[in-house]
Each structure stands twice: as C-alpha cells, then as structure tokens.
Amino acid sequence: MRRSVRSLIPVTLALVLASQPVPAQTPDAPAAVEEPAWSFSVVADTYVLSDDRHYLQPTVTADRGWLHLEARHNYEGLDTASAWFGVNFNGGSALEWAITPILGGVFGDTTGVAPGFKGSINWRRLELYGENEYVVDANNREDSYFYNWSEATLAPAEWFRFGIVTQRTRVYRSDRQIQRGVMAGVSFRHVNVTGYLFNPDQDTRFVLAVGLTFGKSTHE
Q: d(Cα 124, Cα 95) in Å, to the nearest integer?
C-alpha cells in the first residue's frame, strides 16, 4: 500500500504542475512613442500712437514638434496680413536656446514674401528674444525693408518680468529708424499681459500686449 501511495505522488505533482497556466512567450513589445502635442498662442498687441492712427495687431501661432505655423495682421503693414511656415530647433540645459527659421507670404496693402527667424536664449532668469524678417515687396523693390523686434528681460519671479525693447518697423511713422523703450509684464496661468513704452523722450508710442497660450511649449 505504501508503495502504491509513493508511486502516486510523482503523478499527482505532474498533474498539478500541468494544470498551472503557462505565461505566453511573446517578444518584447517596442515602447510606445509619444506623439508631440500641439501648442497654441493668441496675442493681441494694441498700438497707441501719439501722432498717428491707433491699431490692433493680432498674431496666432500653432506648434507641434518641429512644425511652426503662424498668421499675423497689421504686422508688416496696416491692412496687411501674412501667413508663415517654420521649423523649430531647440536645445541646452543650463543655457537654453531656441530658433525658428520662418518663411511667409504677405498680402494686402503690402504684397510680397518674407524670410526671417525667431529665436531666444535663456540663462537662469535672463532671456534674450528676437524676431527678424526681410519683407520683399512684390510691387516695388524699393519698398522692401528689414523688420526687427528685440527684448532683453529679467524675471525676478515666475509671474513677473521687465527689461528693455527695440523695434524697427515701417507700419507707422517715426523719427527714429530703431525705436527703443522699456517693458514690464505679468503672467497668470495661460494669460500674459505686457506693456511697452517706446521713445519716452520723444514721439512716445505705447503698446499693450495680451496673450493666451494653450498646450505644452515646443521648446520645453
């Protein structure tokens, strides 16, 4: 009897092990690649001029990974719109940088094409930012011109920044080819409000910029 019991033990163990589910042998699945998210911004600049027509200058941007799309109005000229395509590049850790070469079509009172770029350098709380383009006027080459907007800002807090700004534009008349001024801005969540004061010692121009941002920044 003992011999019979002993002989059943291996058989019982084999049946128990056979009844256990065997994990499926599958090849390692490749890690899912996260698609870059879209980010959007809408900025409305209100120009208050001491001796010229006041006007609103809206800009809308959309970014996804390397892709940059943009639309503007009253930027290259009054009653003029422009549409842009660009490629985003960025890098760095302690010293962060970003640059976006862009190419735009301009139509309205001013008609033509405009190559340019937008770029920034960030180090701790200091930021240098610039927008540059050359408008090639299709109607009269002599009316072609170089446009520039540059900022140097310091952010003592995440919600506040201030600094200096320069601009070269032909949208309105000015005695100075390169206008210079001061600026200060605050931000809360998705909202940014910035004030610019150009030429405070001469033909004063004031710009109030209100912006909304949605989504993760391409340069983060």
A: 8
